[in-house]
Specification:
Blueprint: H1 13-43, H2 47-78, E1 81-82, H3 84-87, H4 122-129, E2 134-135, H5 139-172, H6 175-185, H7 188-192, E3 196-198, H8 203-208, H9 214-227, H10 235-249, H11 258-273, H12 278-290, H13 297-301, H14 303-328, E4 333-335, H15 352-380, H16 390-418, H17 432-459, H18 472-494
Antiparallel strand pairs: 1-2, 3-4
Helix pairs in contact: 1-2, 2-5, 2-11, 5-11, 5-15, 5-16, 9-14, 14-15, 14-16, 15-16, 17-18
């Protein structure tokens, strides 16, 4: 035990008490901070952000379980022995030939460097060396793996928070356009007066319609690619797509506040983006497996989030262009305002959710890249063999920052708007109060139907009677639905953002 340091039996009690107090105090402060944030979101009816906070708590709980599992099993893992030939395969760094002391330790993919000789693993190394073998993973390597997983999860949460924060700030700039539209709708003279709109003269068409033909179609993709770097969304884009959404999904409520709906929908999507799903952990494992010396996987992998982000941004911009072409190719003039038709056919594989999945992967992969660079730099220094040469490090940092900024200020706000051009709307179209009422009605109807079927089956020998008289609970449910519908209509008159579901 001497090589492993002083045990708890011979550690001063004041040291144990001091370290324990500091750790508990920090943990308690973090827990109280999360609890107060949850109370703030709940008090202000920010249910989507409250759900995202619960997702963060789940990730922290998973980290705690991983930490406990590694701490408890590290001594047993270090005593698992493998052949020395196997321990020399797929190394992230080449071992110096003149240093033979590295043959029995330092087998973790993130821990190979000529400066780090894991002296604290002498017990596990001696245990396996007596058998002519090498340890599967040293205790020091397990400790470094522990730190890396923690840094990765925290970096992902922080970068997602920054992305949503900056993206929301960008969307808030569109509020003046929403107020302008609502004020225009309130003007009775303009609403009653009939007018005709020349399609090709409309600002939305002039900015998006590029002509008909293969050459124009190719130029349309180039235009969409460049558009995401400049003004990805302008006033005519917002007003036209807002009108298309309101006309399609809530025609009975022309005063619908589309901007508030965008914020609620974005907060709801954030709850999915902030989590680390199982397939993202699979990606981490694959990267650690392929991080082999001379392959420079870490360098080429840095281009993946940038390529995906540019492709997603170009596609979202091209969806707006498709909306303009659909109207311009069919009409010369239209009665009233120009209205676009939302459809799932505009998206890849007819799935708007696929775009959110790609953004989730892009944010995680970029967080992984930056967290990996930070971890290697803090653990081994700038000259580590894993970091590589300067010509490999600088482009990775530049790409990471560029992806973060472009996703925050362009792609995410663009997604928040264009994702509403699908065939269906999201649950965020209702306010939190309306969502609770609808969920309560659905639950009551389901329970009543189940009880009614059971009662009818037992009364007729197990065969339900299709013309059986309605039960008192069915009559009570119908009255509840009628009452709820009247309440919902009253809320719709008081609050413009509440609409009835068709």
């Amino acid at each position: 035990m001497a090589g492993e340091g002083t045990t708890l039996e011979y550690t001063p009690t004041w040291v144990v008490a001091l370290v324990c107090s500091v750790i508990v105090s920090i943990s308690f402060a973090v827990e109280r901070g999360l609890h107060r944030a949850g109370k703030h979101f709940d008090k202000n009816d920010q249910k989507q952000l409250f759900g995202a906070l619960q997702k963060v708590k789940e990730e922290l709980m998973l980290l705690g379980f991983i930490s406990l599992l590694l701490s408890v099993s590290q001594s047993r893992i270090a005593k698992i022995c493998i052949s020395k030939e196997l321990s020399e395969k797929l190394l992230p760094c080449k071992k110096p030939k003149e240093d033979k002391s590295l043959n029995d330790n330092s087998h973790f993919q993130l821990s190979f460097t000529g400066r780090h000789l894991l002296a604290g693993d002498s017990a596990a190394g001696d245990y396996c060396s007596q058998k002519g073998k090498a340890p599967l993973m040293s205790i020091s390597a397990l400790h470094e793996l522990h730190i890396f997983i923690f840094v990765l999860a925290i970096a992902h949460i922080i970068f997602c928070l920054l992305t949503i924060l900056f993206g929301t700030m960008k969307i808030m700039q569109w509020r003046k356009w929403e107020d302008k539209v609502l004020e225009k709708d309130y003007n009775a003279d303009e609403v009653i007066q009939k007018k005709y709109t020349a399609v090709r003269e409309h600002d939305f068409i002039r900015g998006r319609f590029l002509g008909v033909g293969k050459a124009d179609a190719c130029f349309g993709w180039v235009h969409s690619f460049m558009k995401q770097f400049l003004a990805s969304v302008n006033e005519s884009d917002y007003i036209t797509m807002r009108l298309g959404f309101v006309t399609t999904h809530c025609k009975t409520n022309p005063k619908f506040n589309f901007h508030k709906y965008l914020i609620r929908a974005l907060n709801s999507d954030f709850k999915k983006v902030v989590g680390i799903s199982w397939y993202l952990w699979v990606f981490v494992v694959l990267f650690l497996l392929l991080n082999i010396a001379a392959w420079h996987v870490y360098f080429w992998l840095a281009f993946l989030p940038l390529i995906l982000l540019l492709a997603v941004g170009m596609k979202l911009e091209h969806i707006i262009t498709d909306l303009a072409h659909e109207v311009a190719e069919k009409h010369i003039a239209v009665e009233g305002d120009l209205v676009v038709r939302p459809s799932d056919d505009l998206f890849w594989f007819k799935s708007p959710r696929l775009v959110l999945f790609l953004i989730h992967f892009i944010l995680f992969q970029n967080s992984f890249e930056l967290a990996f660079i930070f971890f290697i730099f803090a653990q081994y220094g700038f000259d580590s063999c894993i970091m590589g040469q300067v010509k490999f490090i600088i482009p990775r940092l530049v790409i990471g920052v560029l992806v973060q900024l472009l996703c925050s200020y362009s792609t995410l706000p663009l997604y928040a708007l264009v994702a509403q051009m699908g065939s269906s709307f999201k649950g965020a179209i209702f306010t939190d109060q309306a969502q609770k009422q609808i969920a309560g009605w659905a639950k009551s109807a389901k329970m009543t139907k189940k009880k009614g079927s059971t009662h009818a089956g037992s009364s007729h020998g197990g065969i339900p009677n299709p013309i059986a008289a309605p039960s008192p609970k069915s009559i009570q449910l119908q009255s509840l639905l009628v009452k709820g519908s009247s309440q919902q209509s009253h809320l719709s008159e008081k609050k413009p953002e509440i609409v009835e579901e068709k």
